[in-house]
Design goal:
This protein is of the alpha+beta class and 647 residues long. Helix content is 17%, strand content 38%. The strands form six sheets. Strands 1, 6, 7, 8, 9, 11, 12, 13, 14, 17 and 18 form an eleven-stranded antiparallel beta sheet that branches. It has a seven-stranded antiparallel beta sheet with strand order 2-3-4-5-10-16-15. α4 packs parallel to α5, α6 packs parallel to α7 and α11 runs parallel beside α13. It comes from Arenibacter echinorum.
C-alpha cells in the first residue's frame, strides 16, 4: 500500500548544550504556511501565518492544567510519501509535511509536543511518557482569530449554525439560559478576506480515556477554546491531533487530506471484504403504495421487491432497519413475526445482493461480544448501529469488534465524528454526523443541505439518505415515516440525484421505493452508474455555504458532477478544464426544467445528451432548490443528442 518516495530527518540546530531555545518556527513544504512555537512564562504558545498574514495570533497550548513547561530538546524532520486508501475521495494520497518535535518536561512529567505543517493545514499533538502523572488532564488549545470573522458549525440533527459573528456564538452557547452547550466540530471560520479555516481533531483512535473535542468562546472577540477531558494512567498517553485546515474556498476544506493523513494507518491486514457501494433502505418507504396496489411495510414480500430491484440495477446492498426483531435480551434476538428473515436472507443470497441489519442499543443489551459474531452468522455484510451515544471508548470498541467479524459499520443518532477512522479501520464505512433526510420525521431545506455538505462533511463520510424521487407523495403525507408536517420537504428530483454524489460516503443509502426509481429510470441512471467510494480524485468546483455547491468526482476516465442550489436558484458555470486534451467526451445531463420548483413542481426534470471536450464551459441552470448532474465519459461514436423533457 505504501510507496515511499523519501523520508529524511533534518537536525535543525535548535538544540543547545547549555540552554535550548524557547522560540521555534516550522514552515510547510511549500513555505506558504508556518507555525511559530514560543514558551511564554513557562507556557506553550503558538501562532500561524498563511503567507504574509497572521491567521492565528499568539494562542495557548496546554495538557496539564497550570503546569510549567520546560523545553529540553528540539528536532525537525520532513516526510513525503504516498499511500492508497482502501476507498475514499482519492485513490492515492500524498502525505507531505514538516514536523517539529519538542521534548518537554511538564511539572516533572516527561513528554513531547509534535507540530506538523502541511501545505493545506497544521496540527499539534502531545505524547506523555510512561510514569506517574495526574489522573485527570485537559487538552486545551486556544485560537486567537481575526475579529470580524463569520462562524459555522454542526448542530446535531438540526440545521448547522451560521453564519454568525462572535456575539452569535455567545448567544448560541447561552441559549435557554444554559452555559452547558458547546460548539461541535468542525468550526468553520470565514475570515474577513473571505479565506476559510476549519478547527477540528483527528486520530481519536490513538487516544485512550478521552472525550470528544468541544469548542467554546474564550472571553474576548475572536478568541476560542477547544477542550478534551482526559483520564490518565501511568502508561504512555497520546492525544488526538488538533487540526487547523486552510482553504481559499469552503469547498477546499471538504477535500483536504490533512485529517486522514494524520490518522493511524490501517490496522487491518486483509481488507478485501470491505466493499463500498449503494444500498436500498426500507424505513422511509413504509406505507408507500406501488402502482400495482402493493403497500410496502415490514414483511417478506416487501423485502423481496427491494432485493429484486437491487439485483436488476446492480445495487450492492439492501439495508433492513428497525423492527426485524421484537425483543432483545443478552445473547438473544426474538425475531419479528411480521417477516420471515431466513427466507429474506436466502433470497438475497440467491440474487447476489448483500444485506445489512439495524441494531438499536436502547432496545436491550445484547452484548457486543455476541452481537457482531451473531450478525456475521446470519450472513450480514454490515450493521447500522443506532443510539450509541457520544462515547469514544465504546465507539472504538464497536468498530474493532465489527471488523473482527468482517462487518461494515454505519453509526447513527449523534455519533462521535471520529475523523480519520476510515483510514485506521476502513470498515467504518459512514455515519450520521448530520441531519439526515426527514430525520426525526422532520424535513430539511436546500440551504441546510448545502451547509452540511460544506461543514459536517469536513469530518469524513456522512450517511444522509439523499435520493428521494417521489417528492410529491412524500410531501403529501403518504408515507408512515414521512415529515410530520406535510409540504415541508423542499427539493427537486434532479437535486436529489446530485446530492447522492455531493455527499461523500462509503455507503450511499437511497431511501425511496423501487417503483419510484423505476418511474424515473433515466434520471436514476446517474445514481446507478455512480461508482460509490471508488473515486480517483474529487474536486469542489463551486462553493458558498448555504447558497450552492458543485462537486466533481472521477473514476478512471469517467467524471460525475453534481450541483445543488438554495431556494433562490441560479446559474453555475462548470469549467471542464480537468478533462484530457484531444479527447471527445459524451455527456448526459440530468437537470431541472424551466418549470421546476422545489415547492410547486419538484418532479419536473429533463435528461439530454451531447458532446464536450476539455475547457468547455457548461452553463448549469438550477431551479429554486434545484440540482444539476453530469455523467461524462470518453465518446463512442453514434450516440444521439436528443433532449427529452419529463414531468
Amino acid at each position: 500500500m505504501w510507496r515511499m518516495f523519501y523520508f529524511f530527518a533534518l537536525l535543525s540546530g535548535l538544540v543547545s548544550c547549555e540552554k535550548p531555545h524557547d522560540n521555534f518556527n516550522l514552515a510547510s513544504p511549500d513555505g506558504k504556511l508556518s507555525i511559530g512555537i514560543e514558551l511564554i512564562d513557562n507556557k506553550l504558545n503558538y501562532r500561524v501565518h498563511s503567507g504574509d498574514m497572521e491567521s492565528i495570533g499568539i494562542s495557548e497550548l496546554e495538557i496539564l492544567p497550570n503546569a510549567s513547561v520546560a523545553i529540553l530538546k528540539a528536532s525537525e524532520s520532513e516526510n513525503d510519501d504516498t499511500w492508497d486508501p482502501v476507498w475514499g475521495q482519492q485513490s492515492s494520497i500524498r502525505n507531505n509535511f514538516k514536523e517539529l518535535q519538542l521534548d518537554i518536561n511538564i511539572d516533572g512529567v516527561g513528554g513531547k509536543l509534535l507540530a506538523r505543517a502541511y501545505n493545506e493545514g497544521v496540527a499539534f499533538r502531545f505524547v506523555l511518557d510512561e510514569g506517574e502523572k495526574p489522573k485527570e488532564a485537559n487538552f486545551k488549545c486556544t485560537y486567537n482569530l481575526h475579529k470580524g470573522s463569520n462562524y459555522f458549525a454542526p448542530a446535531g440533527e438540526s440545521e448547522p449554525l451560521g453564519p454568525v459573528d462572535y456575539k452569535g456564538l455567545t448567544d448560541y452557547l447561552q441559549e435557554n439560559n444554559s452555559n452547558k452547550r458547546n460548539i461541535s466540530v468542525p468550526l468553520v471560520v470565514e475570515s474577513p478576506d473571505r479565506s476559510y479555516m476549519a478547527l477540528l481533531e483527528s486520530d481519536l483512535y490513538a487516544s485512550n480515556g478521552i472525550d470528544p473535542m468541544q469548542l467554546d468562546i474564550a472571553g474576548t472577540e475572536g478568541k476560542l477554546l477547544s477542550v478534551n477531558n482526559v483520564q490518565l494512567n501511568e502508561k504512555q498517553w497520546t492525544s488526538p491531533w488538533r487540526v487547523i485546515l486552510f482553504g481559499k474556498s469552503a469547498g477546499d476544506l471538504v477535500v483536504n487530506t490533512v485529517p486522514i493523513n494524520l490518522a493511524t494507518p490501517s490496522k487491518l491486514e486483509n481488507t478485501d471484504w470491505i466493499k463500498p457501494g449503494k444500498t436500498l433502505w426500507d424505513w422511509r418507504v413504509h406505507g408507500y403504495t406501488a402502482p400495482d396496489g402493493f403497500e410496502y411495510g415490514i414483511n417478506t414480500e416487501s423485502y423481496f421487491r427491494y432485493i429484486d430491484f437491487a439485483a436488476e440495477k446492480g445495487i450492492e446492498y439492501f439495508l433492513i432497519d428497525d423492527s426485524w426483531y421484537k425483543e432483545v435480551t443478552k445473547g438473544h434476538f426474538e425475531l419479528s413475526d411480521k417477516l420471515d428473515l431466513k427466507k429474506v436472507i436466502d433470497y438475497a443470497a440467491e440474487k447476489e445482493v448483500d444485506l445489512m441489519l439495524y441494531y438499536d442499543r436502547r432496545h436491550g443489551e445484547y452484548g457486543d461480544e455476541e452481537l457482531f459474531p451473531y450478525y456475521q452468522s446470519l450472513g450480514m455484510k454490515g450493521i447500522k448501529y443506532g443510539f450509541m451515544g457520544s462515547n469514544v471508548y465504546f465507539t472504538r470498541e464497536a468498530i474493532q469488534k465489527s471488523a473482527a467479524s468482517q462487518l461494515l459499520i454505519d453509526f447513527h443518532d449523534s455519533p462521535v465524528p471520529f475523523t480519520g477512522i476510515r483510514r485506521t479501520y476502513p470498515n467504518a464505512i459512514t455515519r450520521e454526523y448530520c441531519h439526515a433526510q426527514q430525520d426525526s420525521r422532520r424535513a430539511f431545506t436546500p440551504e441546510s443541505f448545502i451547509k452540511m455538505a460544506l461543514i459536517n462533511a469536513i469530518t469524513g463520510p456522512l450517511d444522509m439518505n439523499n435520493g428521494n424521487f417521489d417528492l410529491t407523495g412524500i410531501n403529501s403525507g403518504l408515507r408512515q415515516k414521512g415529515p410530520r408536517e406535510t409540504n415541508t420537504y423542499f427539493s427537486t428530483v434532479a437535486s436529489e440525484a446530485a446530492r447522492t454524489l455531493v455527499i461523500f460516503s462509503g455507503l450511499v443509502c437511497i431511501p425511496d421505493a423501487p417503483e419510484a426509481y423505476e418511474a424515473k429510470a433515466d434520471l436514476f441512471e446517474f445514481i446507478q452508474k455512480m461508482p460509490v467510494g471508488k473515486w480517483d480524485e474529487s474536486q469542489i468546483l463551486h462553493s458558498q455555504i448555504g447558497e450552492y455547491i458543485s462537486t466533481a468526482r472521477r473514476h478512471d476516465k469517467e467524471w460525475f458532477i453534481g450541483s445543488v442550489y438554495n431556494q433562490q436558484g441560479g446559474e453555475l458555470n462548470i469549467e471542464l478544464n480537468f478533462l484530457e486534451t484531444d479527447t471527445e467526451y459524451e455527456v448526459t445531463y440530468y437537470e431541472d426544467t424551466p418549470e421546476t420548483h422545489c415547492k410547486t413542481n419538484p418532479e419536473a426534470y429533463q435528461v439530454r445528451s451531447g458532446k464536450v471536450k476539455k475547457d468547455d464551459v457548461i452553463k448549469a441552470i438550477l431551479a429554486p432548490g434545484g440540482g444539476h448532474c453530469m455523467w461524462i465519459r470518453p465518446a463512442n461514436n453514434g450516440e444521439d443528442s436528443d433532449s427529452q423533457l419529463l414531468e
